[in-house]
Amino acid sequence: MTSVRESTGATAVPPRTRPRRWLAATALLASAAIAALGTAWWLVPDSDPFVTASSRSLASAVLDPTQFAAVVIATGLVGIVVAVALLARGAREPRAPFVAAVAAALLALAATLVLGDAGTITFAGYVFGFCSVVAGVVTTCVLVVRAPRLGVPLLVLLVALVVVAVSWAGLTWQGVTTFLGKFGAALVANAGLIAVSAISVVAVLAWVAIAVSVGRTTREVRRFEGWLVRHRRVLTVLAALGPLPYAVVRASWLTPWPLFAPAADELSPAMLTTGLMLGAGAVAAVVLTLGLILPWGLVFPAWMPRVGGRTVPARLAVVPGLAAATVVTISAVPMLIVAAGSPTLGEAVVFDLLLPFWFWGPMLALAVWAYAAWRRELSRPVA
Questions:
Q1: Helix, coil or strand: residue 354
Q2: How far apart are CA 38 and CA 51, in angstroms?
Q3: 209-231: per-residue pLDDT in tens?
């Protein structure tokens, strides 16, 4: 019988190398986009969004616009060369996997320092917070029907929070609609910067994934993965602590002792809506992070329609988790720069502890990596 390989005349690509080739192609496109952005900013400096952005990347803060554009171009070109070299190897392993892994890691670091902007976490936080509120309401409704013992208390808690927010804190429907209108207008006004943030996130995520995939063939990375699996619970709990301070601060706005809140006459309903929604996103981030070590991170809960009782696909947790870790990490340095501009050292320290992106991002990345390695071990056949 003639095989598919013989009939087509093509060389079959081993399944384990297909994701790597896809990642290399993604890194190539992202690097080309970065080089194109740098060229546009070189030719038309006024088109550079970092020139007027309130929060800037480390490179744009220390370089003039021309130098910054040159660094952006260089980052993109180097990325193109490395990605083409990886694609040229096809189904074969890199000749020097350690060198290839280091090159990919350095490119991820370069993209972070060159294009990482605090606006990335700002817009991502708004979108995630809004989605968290919607998902929370939908989940509560499903639980009330399919698992009343859990859903009814959760519904009572949700109604109680709404009552407190309306009667005590001053939340109004007009405040909600005002926030949504301003948020939509901000998305349109900052479309260029959001596009740059999206490209930087894709580039960093692709290069980090390539570094891990290629480096996994080396003894050092395999040994490190073993350490991650052994300590995955501790790492996950530490990662879940990252958004917790912000969640506590926003929750305090529903009490007589609001933390880091403006004066009562300055806390408008729209501002209250913003704070509570972002706080809901922080709570959701804590819960989802803990899911990496809880039973429902491996098997869908029975109350979930259609998928209840089935095994959770590893990618369903790994891809969003690494994307979130990337968004947080590339915003860490710009946020440290913002904190450095505080009037006093004490205020800078409080700011960095309230928004510990410098800790949360890397720790979340390690927790997700540990989860991925653990799931890979579970999927291996037992001898």
A1: helix
A2: 13
A3: 999 888 888 888 889 999 999 99
